[in-house]
Each structure stands twice: as C-alpha cells, then as structure tokens.
Design brief:
five-stranded mixed beta barrel, OB fold (Dihydrolipoamide Acetyltransferase, E2P), mainly beta
C-alpha cells in the first residue's frame, strides 16, 4: 500500500477561504479534495448542496476540479473540512430564475415517508415540494408547474405534470 507523505496545514489556510481543488476520492459520506500544497480535506455529503443527495457521485467525479470553501480547520489533528453549498448561491439568489405559473424540470430528491409530499430539486441549492403521488422515485426527472413561491418562508410549492 502506498502512503502519502504527511502534509501539515500551513497558516495561510483560513476558515471561510474560497479555494480550488481536485476530487481525489469519493466515499458514501463525502469527497476528499486536494488543494494547494497537497493538503487533503473532506467535503461531507451534507455540505455538497442544500438538496439531499444519496451519493457524492451525483455531483462529483474523481479528478474533477471544484471550487470549495474552507469550513473548519483542526490544526492539532491536521484535518480540514470543506463546504460547497455556500458557493451555489442563497435561496434568494436561486429563486430569481423561477416564476409562478411556469413549467420547469426538476429531479425528485425525496418522497416523504408519511406521504405528505415529494421534494424536487430545481437547482442544487433550491428545492420545492409537490403533493405526494405514487410511483415516483429518487433521481427521477420530472416536469413541474410552479404553483406558489413564498419568499418569507423560503418555500416553493409545485405540481408534478
């Protein structure tokens, strides 16, 4: 087995810093990203996008160049955690692309177990909810009608067409 040389985290690296990296490894819980000077950190699956995803492979592939933000640094343990979702824009930024009364494509991200609704990703940082219907699966592409946008609650109500 080949062991990588220990690379200490330099003082130049700071939390909230935006940097570029390369995806080196993908695990079920996240992606390992290598940044300058050979420093490798973890981009946890929960920090990839607002929309729930089942695998980091939905967003990244090994060797892909990515822009990330330093979420936290543990200089004692020599560990770095990254985030990506903050770079995808806020709810307010993303909703400007959408208008009530229009049809758009989305991806089913979760069907409520209690059958209250279906979460549909419109962009990586914008999810809306449609009424529950049978026979829809995670990852399925669907066309939806934007019924209502509620900015004060950051909600988008959808109808699956």
């Amino acid at each position: 087995m080949k062991y990588k040389k220990f690379v200490p985290i330099n003082d130049e690296l700071q939390e909230k810093m935006i940097t570029n990296g390369i995806v080196k490894s993908i695990q079920p819980y996240g992606a390992f990203i290598e940044i300058e000077n050979g420093i490798v950190g973890l981009l946890h699956i929960e920090d990839i996008s607002i929309a729930r995803i089942k695998s980091p492979f939905e967003r990244f592939q090994i060797g892909q160049k990515v822009q990330i933000m330093v979420k936290s640094i543990d200089r004692v343990e020599n560990k770095v955690m990254f985030t990506h979702k903050e770079l995808l824009g806020t709810w307010e930024d993303n909703i400007t692309e959408f208008k009530e009364g229009t049809k758009v494509k989305g991806i089913i991200k979760e069907t409520e177990k209690s059958k209250n609704g279906i979460f549909i990703e419109l962009t990586p940082n914008l999810v809306g909810m449609a009424e529950y219907k049978e026979n829809f699966e995670y990852g399925q592409s669907v066309e939806v009608y934007i019924k209502k946008i509620i900015p004060e609650k950051k909600k988008v109500k959808l109808i699956i067409i």
